[in-house]
Structures
1.
Amino acid sequence: MHSVVSAALPETMAVSDSQWKIPVVTRLESDISADHQFFPLWNDIFPCPACGEIFQKPHILEQHQTLKHAVSEHIDGDSGNNIVPVVTRLESDISADHQFFPLRNDIFPCPACGEIFQKPHSLEQHQTLKHAVSELIDGDSGNNMVRIIFKTDWIDTEKTPKIHRILKIHNSTKIFGRFEEDREHVKSKAARHSGVRRRDERCIADGNELLRFHCSTFLGNLGQNGNSGLCNHQYCSICGIIRSGFSQKLDGISTLSTSWRAHATIPDDIEDEFRFMNVKRVMLVCRVVAGRMGSDQDDVDKEDDGFDSIVGRTAIGSGGGSLTRMTDDKELLVFNPRSVLPCFVIVYSV
């Protein structure tokens, strides 16, 4: 019997004749597990290979690894051998088993500020309100390009504009999607009527897209000192346009070929008259899907599906401090507000 016990035990635990004889378990653990289903055995525990914490079920270990060790990291100064193990099951698989379990693929961080959101539309709304614009600093290629476009064809030599800052607009996916949908609508409509006029070829290609100016006003300090958020003031035109697009209630959106002509559509004294509201003049540089363009000699109506915009209207502008009547054959009135996509904001004064 002694020889049987000694052979069954490890060398460090072998017993002599003077010691008590220790009986050996001759049945396999699987047999004991069958008789004692609640008996804790080594094949019934699951240690975490990263931190050593013990779990009784494999899915609990997977949950622990997902939360605590979801990303592999190299320890500073290490050659790469000491790595925190990653979860071997896909998070989507665990999500299928635990639909209310918070996982990394169920959160949406803001790339600008890092704030976490649980739904994508909440993230998009946050980006639209808090990170709507970003300033193009001096020396930036985009800044130089917009500055040149703005100052080109400014014909008033006595009142030269002073640019305070140039902002790039980060349009929401909803507004940008509407713009692209309208372009495709214009292209398909022009294709159905191809051959009628030569200029429809441009409509088939890109919807007859143009670069135009639209002058308006804003309140507050948009883009000043790194402020990229929009205000909620009901009289702030620019913030309303960036947030929701141009109003559907208008007969059309007035866009002009040069910044000076767009500037002339707003009276010179508007900033002095509404100084108590901190009103400032601002210029929008817009992409415009002009589509098929009619003229003021044509019998064009907004509801007429034959034309998408109209040119050659008589506009009222300001010159030399007094209102003057001028015929502006370069004004373009776009019927569909979704066809006008603001891209840059120029805060300036004259």
2.
Amino acid sequence: MENIIKSVHFLLLFFALIFSCSQARSIIARPQPLSTFKINTTQNVRSCSFSVSIRTSCSSPRYTRDQISLSFGDAYGNQVYAPRLDNPRERTFERCSVDTFEIYGPCTYPICYLYLYRSGYDGWKPERVDVYGYNIKAVSFYYNVFIPSDVWYGFNYCRRRASASA
């Protein structure tokens, strides 16, 4: 009888441990607002070319007239800035679409941060942003959330945080 009680106690403890450790945690980072983000306009030298593809979610509004800007860079302070990507006449950022832009800026080491800025009233939900550049590994940033208005919103995977917040 004592062995049965010990076995039941062990099983209860085992299941309690399993259930307490099985809380699901997301391993995919979600984009974050960054109110202290500063654009380094003096550094936007046109020495390297980047191809940026932005996939707009199928749950985004049908189109947006909002102003969309983009900035990305590396852990060493090299920053690429595109002040206006939107163009409603050319139907950019329509629902379920992919828009590709050729952006010029300083050459970078591996890109580790990317932020989007939206200003307007229509709303916009990008699904993902892919950045390709010469001599750097392509990188993807997964949003799939509505971008809040009038704040830089995105990701910073840099080990040295100074690049995006300096």
3.
Amino acid sequence: MAEEMTSKTDVTFDTSSNTKSENLPVQPLILRKLTSYNMWTMLARMYGRKKRVLRTYQIKRNIYSLKQGDLFVASFYAALKTKWEELDYHVNDDWNCGFDHELYWQKESMDRTFIFLRSLRDEFESIRSQILNCNETPGIEEVYARVESEEQRRQVMHIDSSHGSSPSASVSRAPGIG
């Protein structure tokens, strides 16, 4: 289809060509618009939302399928956080009041905490249980800090045990003391 621009807002279409694209069901919706602004607004409504919803679905599907695997906790959390930031970009909710928005983010924070904990390797079951048995579920940043500390503790313990020293403290006497 060839376009002829008569002004900044008016667009006319040459429909004399006989192509397959003329038979698209969208064409009548577009051709009925009087201005290019109205045409682009209609296209954005039709395809922009579909693309955003599809991308949101894909991101959430990726988030729910992520597992820690062989990654360190920090690398895994960074990957999750990147996906969450991408999701936040694509979610475009309109809020009628600030309180609803605050409630939404509290729920979202708890959901993200659960996703993070669920996706960890089984070796973190004890710290996962400790966190979930708290009277108040901590935020995702605090949960990450606790789990990462546990991972570091385990690494130190593993290094100590591989060098033949015991993780318990050793007490020795200085020479000449009785």
4.
Amino acid sequence: HSFKDVDQVFQKKLGDKLEAKLDDLCKQNMKAFSDFCWALIQGIFHPLYEDVKQGTFSKPEGYYLFVKKMIELKYHQVPRKGVQAGETLRKYLDSKEGVADALLETDQSLTEKEKETEVERMKSEAAEAANKMLEEMQKKNEQMMQKKEPLNFRNRNDFSRRDSKRRA
């Protein structure tokens, strides 16, 4: 048949079959690389998200620590991930975007609370310092009064003696 294929019908059918087979192989290849990348991502990122669940990043500056740890992960250094590597990573990170947003929101909230706590601490320290200064001033006044009291007593005695001498 192929020698008498004047209209190239059999050649077109063969070409269509080969193209379909190539498309199928490409899809299988893409799926295999995607699955490999997904498994790799799960393995690399799992400890990070376990830390998130345990609250490791639920503290002031926790979001930045999370981002730093995420950058330190070695996903891009693993060879033979195929053409799907970037797309698979993007999909994974998109699926976890809520976690990062929640960490950022928590971080900002905690940072704000930390600032408020710091302001309260500073006010408390200022009040303590003012009380201490007041106590010291009172102590000095008392000491001065105690020093003046003998003088006043002496002056009163001198005055009473002078007054007695005048009367006599």
